[in-house]
């Protein structure tokens, strides 16, 4: 996240807050469930599912919280510190993708581990429909005429998502001497393409949802080449 923000803001001197916010969010939203899970299961085997569950338990809440949170903070204008804090808090409280994980953490901390059955099933039905609707909306938002130019616009996000982010994680895990099996799982999942939820978040927070769609499509297509490269690099 910080690497993406620093790259956009200081290296390429991008002034458009919406672009910087989208790039930052895209860098930290791997497709853990739909790409990461089957990849880990196929490449490493069922014995890695426990490690993946551990990774998901730690990383997913952070991704879901920090991604929209960082976007909101970047988007808020900094006229003065008091106004900045006021606007930032207001934007965060209005963002369901920030409040949802916070509410979940609060419920767990209060010892509430299960919702009433009727409410749980209702929310599960809505959640199951959300991914399908997101994919339909994503497909409908893609302009075929822009496909050839998409990589020229989004190459930095693609590079950050598929190479730089997993490389940073690999170096960090190597430095702290983490278990090799857990390191392989974490890096492999982090090297997956951008999650579809980026499009949902971009749509809901006023970011460039068209560019978000292009990032998702490009990273998904290119991951067919880059994920095998990471598998070879990790020696799995």
UniProtKB/TrEMBL annotation:
GO cellular component terms given for this protein: plasma membrane
Alphabetically ordered keywords of this record: Cell membrane, Membrane, Transmembrane, Transmembrane helix, Transport
Superkingdom in the source lineage: Bacteria
Main location: membrane
Pfam families: Mem_trans (PF03547)
Record localization: Cell membrane
Gene Ontology BP annotations: transmembrane transport
Transmembrane region(s): 49-76, 97-119, 125-146, 158-178, 184-202, 214-233
Gene3D superfamilies per UniProt: 1.20.1530.20
InterPro entries in UniProt: Mem_transp_PIN-like, Na+/solute_symporter_sf
Keyword Transmembrane helix attributed: yes
Annotated membrane topology: Multi-pass membrane protein
Family: Belongs to the auxin efflux carrier (TC 2.A.69) family.
Protein name stated in the entry: Transporter
Organism: Synergistes jonesii
